[in-house]
Amino acid sequence: MAPRTCVLCENFKAILKRPKTGQQICKDCFFYVFETEVHNTITQSNLFAPGDRVAIGASGGKDSTVLAYVLKTLNERYNYGLNLFLLSIDEGITGYRDDSLETVKRNQQQYDMPLKILSYDELYGWTMDAIVSQVGRKNNCTFCGVFRRQALDRGAVMLNVDHIVTGHNADDIAETVLMNIMRGDIARLGRCTSICTQGEDTIKRSKPFKYAYEKEIVMYAYFKKLDYFSTECIYSPDAYRGHARTFLKDLEAARPSAIIDIIHSGEAFEVSEEVKATQKAQQTCKRCGYMSSNELCKACTLLEGLERGMAASGITDRARKKMEAEGPAPENLRTIPFFKLPTGQPAVAIEAPS
Amino acid sequence: MASESCGNPATDTDATMPRRPKFDRSKFCVKCKENTGNIVIRHAVYCKNCFMPLLTGKIRRNLEPFINEKGDGSRRRYLKASGNLLIGISGGLGSTVLLDLISRMYFPSQMESQKRTELLKGGTAHPRNEMVWQKAVVCYVEVCSAFPNMKDRTEDVRTLVKTYEQFEFTPLRLEDAFDRKWWAEVGGKPSPDLFVDPTNEALFLTQHDEDSSSSPVERLRSYLSALPTPTAIPSAIRMLVRLLLLYTAQSTNSSHLLLGANLTSLSISLISSISQGGGFTVKEEAQEEWTPKVAGNTPQTVRLLRPLQEIGLKECAFWAWWNELNVIGRDKFPGAKQGIGALTRDFIVGLERDYPSTVSTVARTCGKLAPKAGANGTCVLCDRSLQIGVQEWKARISIRSLSNSAPPPKTMNAALSDTLCYSCHTTLTSRSSKVRSLSNNLLPLPVWVHSYLKRSGLPEDSVDIAVQEELKESGGEIWERRKIDRSEMKGAISEFLLEE
């Protein structure tokens, strides 16, 4: 059979079938369309302004490795004028992050970007290993997820950046849309497809890979010869999310546009006005100053439970009531440092590439 | 571990797992607290006697606030619909149960109504005691012509409907959507046959003279065979059936169209619609108001409601079993198994087994959603709200050509893409990942598209060309219709171009 020609440039031999469109295209055209779509996403939503200090949430996995590479490329090609940083979180799981943190350190060298690694231990006084030894394997994802979100914001404050970008891809977002519908989480459903989230007292956070297919990110890394580590957590079989992911993969196999179609659906609807009126207003945590839906933010609630030896109090209502019945938190309880938005100067020394 | 057990669960109690109780508290009905329960509905036990009021209560809650043309606010008044009633029946479980319940609740047989009259307050002449709808028509759309070797069930459905003396029966066929005769019957203006080229995402409109003599069944089959994925076929059929029913509602002066979707099937259609890009109109999957746009008709708004939307599959099955209802059943569409609709069905039914409350959560969550932006008219194919900027969004998110000229070159043929909603455009153009030789067949459009196109502000001439063509055709002149490529365009204007 004669080799197929790229349907885009109609010049070179097609060497791949694009997962998103099914078109058979050449390597250069693939790089071009992948990067240009990310650029379109960035410019369409006015994500950056010249001079912005932007931290890339880097885990050493495929999404963040490719994100760092693409952002650096686009920053130079289109003169975004961004100062890019790498920000990594070390959850403290023995043997899990070691390799991926090495990848991040190598990225720091290759892309010439300053890096900050912030550990749960440093921030909360607890590693995930220590948390799992107290709470067991069942609910530890709650701790890790809540702690990671805050850790990124706090790391960003330390770096004095204006903006955090994460490697969430189209598959992640489509899956989250489905999950939020099935869980009835109307508040998250309303905001999960936004490219950028920013409250009054949080750091701007965005997802430039919002429309990039997971398969294409892998393909990009493969053809650009970028190395990364698969970062499946040893503590994390999340059954319910697993169901949704399998379902999404089936839909994608049936019709590849399904991922983008779900995101389009998610962007087309919003929570109706009558329901919005009944939603809770945002507050700030009275203990650590971070955004919260209750008097205490989730991280402080979880940490108090850990410190008082009643870890389940952050998970179930019954355990929380039990802890409240034992009286208020002791004076000498270890807490998270008070959260303040960036003031202009980095609060920590940043590891500059040597 | 060494054990002396022989492994027979009958003799060895430790060998069996303890059975999980099927219900939370006791085996007595939660409502009357006297009878032993007969059915467990999401952990609550009900007896057979309390089951009927439970079901009718749920139907009333979902139907009665929408019967009167204008809501009465908090004041409860008598129910009076502004038109007749149309019940769409598919032969499946849900619609069979719906037919039975609506007949019992709102159309009592003569004997029963005589008994009732004796008990009525204010006599039969009192407006409160009038029938809610004067007339009820049951409509069945037979889809067997779409596929070879599929059984025609019209007569089975006719026999079923005959058992309810108060209902009239109107059978339709799926190919009516491509039949000018049917279109004239429901009040549509005569229109030429329109076709689109499904191989181009812009979906250029055209008219193929050779095909204009083809029968409605042939046009239906070429419509379905030109669709690019197994997902698209059931979605297209659903859309055609919905519009056939809505037009029939309008032609029978019906103010309400009731469908038998239960909680489980509603959740399936919600997730399936969202997975096919239908988020903008997700609310309409549960309930919609439709005003026909056929010129010359007095517009009667039709309310499409799904009264069983709070009743699960299991409750419907119990109702049918206890009342010995004859469920005719439906054939599965060939190839549909690999489609998004069937995958969603498997997923939701499996989820309902493991996490029973998820199905109602899906329906309740989607009920809280509203479209984010205003609509720009309606889609010419499905007649649901049209979101602005769909094509620009698609072009930005997935680059499909290297040319920077965003709008396609103006050709003699108008493109249908801008007048389609996201879902319909995706149904017609989105391909499967498997390499499949694309059929070059043109895709015939349903009969209503022509009048919608005129209304939607597409350049009049692009549509009228087709009409003009028909006229020219009668004079024996043959017109050729083709797309103009850039080099030909450049050739036509080359003397006005400066050297680069």
Topology:
The complex is a heterodimer of chains A (354) and B (500).
Chain A (H helix, E strand, L loop, with lengths): L15 E2 L6 E2 L1 H18 L8 E5 L4 H16 L5 E8 L7 H14 L3 E5 H5 L3 H8 L4 H20 L3 E3 L4 H14 L2 H6 L4 E2 L6 E3 L7 H10 L15 H16 L3 H11 E3 L1 H4 L6 E2 L6 E2 L5 H10 L9 H9 L29
Parallel strand pairs in A: 3-4, 3-6, 4-5, 6-8
Antiparallel strand pairs in A: 1-2, 7-8, 10-11
Helix pairs in contact in A: 2-3, 2-9, 7-10, 7-11
Chain B lengths: L38 E3 L2 E3 L1 H16 L20 E6 L3 H14 L3 H10 L16 E7 L11 H9 L4 E7 L6 H6 L9 E2 L8 E2 L9 H10 L6 H20 L2 E5 L4 H13 L12 E3 L11 E4 L7 H10 L17 H15 L3 H10 L1 E3 L3 E4 L6 E3 L2 H8 L24 H8 L13 E2 L4 H7 L4 H15 L11 H8 L7
Parallel strand pairs in B: 3-4, 3-8, 4-5, 8-10
Antiparallel strand pairs in B: 1-2, 6-7, 6-14, 9-10, 12-13
Helix pairs in contact in B: 2-9, 7-13, 8-10, 8-11
What descriptive keywords fit this protein?
heterodimer; A: 354 residues; alpha/beta; Rossmann fold; 2 domains; 6-stranded mixed β-sheet; two-stranded antiparallel sheet; 14 helices; 11 strands; 45% helix; B: 500 residues; 11% strand; globular
Task: Write up what this structure looks like.
- The complex is a heterodimer of chains A (about 350) and B (about 500).
- Chain A is α/β, with parallel strands linked by helices and about 350 residues long.
- Chain A has helices spanning about 25-45, 60-75, 100-110, 120-125, 130-135, 140-160, 170-185, 185-190, 215-225, 240-255, 260-270, 275, 300-305, 315-325, and strands at about 15, 25, 55, 85-90, 115-120, 165, 195, 205, 270, 285, 290.
- In chain A, the strands form 3 sheets. A 6-stranded mixed beta sheet of chain A has the order 5-4-3-6-8-7, sandwiched between helices. A two-stranded antiparallel sheet of chain A has the order 1-2.
- Chain A is globular and about 75 Å long.
- The N and C termini of chain A lie far apart (about 50 Å).
- Chain B has a single domain (about 65-485), classed as Rossmann fold, CATH 3.40.50.620.
- In chain B, the strands form 4 sheets. Chain B has a 6-stranded mixed beta sheet with strand order 5-4-3-8-10-9, with helices on both faces. In chain B, strands 7-6-14 form a 3-stranded antiparallel beta sheet.
- The model of chain B is unreliable at about 405-410 and about 460-485 (pLDDT under 50).
- In chain B, helix 2 (about 95-105) packs across helix 9 (about 315-320), helix 8 crosses helix 10 and helix 8 crosses helix 11.
- The interface between A and B is large, with 52 and 50 residues.
